[in-house]
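STRUCTURE:
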């Protein structure tokens, strides 16, 4: 058990955010398929380290009849590796953590197999682990894929574009979730020199990737992570900090989660763009009630929902269904932890309403659900009273130095025997 406390002081602070793991993973994947080397340094999120380590193992010669690749709990890595190994000669067993084996992969497997891959389910149909009979990439790649579960299925295929001499034609079916992450992938491909085209008719989109003038881009700049900034927007909303600076964070055309600056403005946080940094200050909430659609911004749900609960802002949430497929069932995890604060998410049709049903619990004992975003959101409640977690180190999945940065803001944690 871990206890998190706050010293009651709200001094200005400058917070060093991690690099965007979403951008870093895409650059790693693209450089793998281009057979280019890249050095991301050492201070990188665990998710990126996992993918980096897996790619190194894939490139290493082996005399075994099959090679086991372990993506652990890194969802993006697992999806990227599924596509990459399909067109890397060899017999591969791709596995992950227990939670990873509960997260569906069937739509991606079906799309790859339809295009000539040979992937088998090792245990339950539609879920990891997978046995992949890797082959040389064909001249071209043409398939269709369902889009309603995860945008990462789509990105994992697009990032393999360099393997196919005549390019990729991918038909995307249905309503796309997390659409900005597909745009991020297409943006990176464009920066690397690939020709990208996209046509949309109704619920069908056709994405084509063709090789253009592809250059060496292994030193492409990786932006600071807007998703990780959400926790400090949350803290600014509910705390009494006069000034929190986020150096290196700049307005982003690539990261969809940069939308949080406008959303938190409604809850009571102003963000001012300075020279190569964003400065946060608390203001009065602009709206007493909000409706937020999380279809494109699922990673912002924990921080925004919690901010509304603490600030007493009425909230209706749309586009939440795919949150059940994250590192945890984030709807269930949020409900469990919100109940410690006297709140719950009440479902009605396809939306959820944030409702208050009781008082703040005498002791705030939260469950991490081994989900980095649960811990980083609810840790901020320590400004109200000490909070307890079963586990807190999962934050390194996306933010390795989170607890070091939290010390600047007056937080500390210690391991305790019990509550």
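SEQUENCE:
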């Amino acid at each position: 058990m871990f206890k998190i406390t706050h010293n009651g002081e709200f001094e200005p602070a400058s917070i060093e955010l991690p690099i965007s793991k979403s951008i870093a993973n895409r650059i790693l994947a693209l450089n793998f398929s281009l057979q280019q080397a890249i050095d991301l340094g050492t201070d990188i999120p665990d998710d990126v380290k996992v993918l980096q380590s897996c790619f190194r193992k894939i490139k290493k010669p082996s005399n075994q009849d099959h090679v086991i690749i372990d993506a652990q709990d890194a969802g993006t890595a697992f999806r990227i590796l599924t596509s990459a190994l399909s067109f890397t000669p060899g017999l591969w067993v791709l596995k992950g953590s227990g939670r990873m084996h509960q997260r569906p992969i069937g739509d991606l497997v079906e799309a790859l197999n339809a295009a000539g891959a040979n992937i088998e389910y090792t245990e339950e149909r539609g879920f990891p682990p997978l046995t992949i009979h890797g082959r040389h990439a064909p001249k071209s790649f043409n398939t269709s894929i369902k889009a309603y579960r995860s945008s990462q299925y789509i990105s994992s295929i697009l990032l393999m574009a360099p393997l196919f001499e005549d390019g990729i034609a991918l038909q995307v079916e249905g309503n796309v979730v997390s659409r900005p992450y597909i745009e991020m992938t297409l943006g990176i491909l464009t920066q690397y020199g690939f020709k990208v085209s996209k046509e949309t008719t109704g619920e069908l989109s056709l994405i084509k990737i063709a090789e253009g003038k592809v250059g060496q881009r292994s030193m492409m700049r990786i932006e600071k992570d807007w998703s990780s900034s959400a926790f400090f927007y949350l803290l600014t909303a509910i705390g009494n900090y006069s000034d929190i600076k986020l150096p290196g964070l700049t307005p982003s055309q690539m990261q969809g989660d940069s939308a949080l600056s406008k959303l938190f403005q409604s809850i009571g946080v102003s963000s001012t763009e300075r020279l190569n940094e964003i400065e946060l200050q608390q203001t009065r909430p602009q709206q007493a009630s909000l409706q937020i659609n999380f279809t494109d911004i699922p990673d912002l749900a924990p921080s925004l929902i919690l901010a509304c609960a603490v600030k007493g802002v009425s909230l209706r949430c749309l586009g939440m269904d795919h949150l059940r497929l994250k590192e945890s069932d984030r709807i269930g995890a949020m409900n469990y932890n919100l109940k410690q604060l006297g709140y719950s998410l009440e479902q009605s049709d396809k939306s959820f309403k944030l409702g208050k049903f009781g008082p703040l619990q005498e002791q705030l004992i939260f469950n991490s659900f081994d989900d980095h975003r649960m811990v980083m959101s609810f840790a901020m409640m320590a400004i109200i009273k000490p909070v307890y977690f079963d586990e807190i180190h999962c934050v390194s999945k996306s933010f390795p130095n989170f607890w070091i940065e939290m010390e600047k803001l007056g937080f500390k944690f210690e391991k305790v025997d019990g509550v």
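REMARK: The chain is about 30% helix and 25% strand.
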